UniProtKB/TrEMBL annotation:
This is DnaJ domain-containing protein. Residues 61-80 are annotated as: Disordered. The keyword DNA repair does not apply. Pfam families: DnaJ. It comes from the Bacteria. Residues 5-70 form the J domain. PANTHER family: DNAJ HOMOLOG SUBFAMILY A MEMBER 3, MITOCHONDRIAL (PTHR44145). It comes from Lachnospira pectinoschiza.
Amino acid sequence: MNLNEAYKLLGVSENDTNKVIKTKYRELIFKHHPDSSDNDEASIKKAQLINEAFDLIKKDKKKRPRGTRGYGANSGARKTYSTDKDFSNFYEYDYYSETDEKKDESHHFRGKTINNAYTSRDIFESPKDSVIRTDGFIKLARGKFLWEPDKEDFECFIHSIILESDSLLKDVELAVGDRLNEDINLESTRNFFRMRLFHLLAKDYVNPIFSLRKILKANQKDENGARVYEIKANLATVGVDDYYKRLYSLRLGDNLYPSKLKNNRLQVETNTGVTLGNLTIEDDRMLYIVIPILERKLARVKIVVRDINNNRAKRPYRINVGISLFLKIEKEVLEEEIKLSKFEELSKEISEEIGTVLKEYEEAIKE
């Protein structure tokens, strides 16, 4: 394929801006991506040609002198300075055959890796920012990648963990084979273990202190370097019952206290020991950060009633109590826990837990 054929295949010209070329490329590669077309042979071939064309254009753009938009010195194109001249950050969507599925393909994604993680996982991009609207995901890479909030969308991370949980359980079922106990409810048993496995895998890929500092800015920093982070949460209910009355009795500024940490939920109570239920953290990402921090006692905690929205205008009555969960983390903890080597030690322990859960699943489903 030559350069003219590459431009023709993408439906762009050499004078189009980088943004136009990138948008057109993404449209075509998603349209013909094997994951979007049931691995149709023609689409696989088309995707290969689109990637080849895009590579040619990208290399051509990099070779050009700064300020030129035409091809070569004698193209006759008007010279102009382009602020959109860097093609180095283009996405390259590769398709994966079944034989490649378990391989590490980290050369398509630059991220921190965790050597002690139990298994590799897929890295996805959601084309939500593209002109194409879809609920699908595009696979970019596979490897033992740490979740980095600034590089990987949270919804893509969760999708990755769900798929890996299902894959690990499926491997156990295949290993059990004809020894499978037909008297058990396999779907119910699988769902129980899937939830346990999901949370362990999330912990295996999320460094809570690293992610916290990526997502939030500290509200306060003291003279010793300790930092305070505010996480917004709430307690809510609909209808008048005992729980409604407990929430209704709260006042702005009231201090609440952690009473139980179980099943990846934080239960709180009043200073008199009245249970108020589990906090719902407003930012879903923070659940996978806050719970590990509390489990490992990496922070001191303060919980305060931030606001109260009590709607009694019509039935059923509704009440929503806004909560500020403050985490105070010492400087030494911040500096130590952010190290990848420190997280590798923890990951080794988590991987052992994952192995134990999979062994328990095997025992639960076989005769």
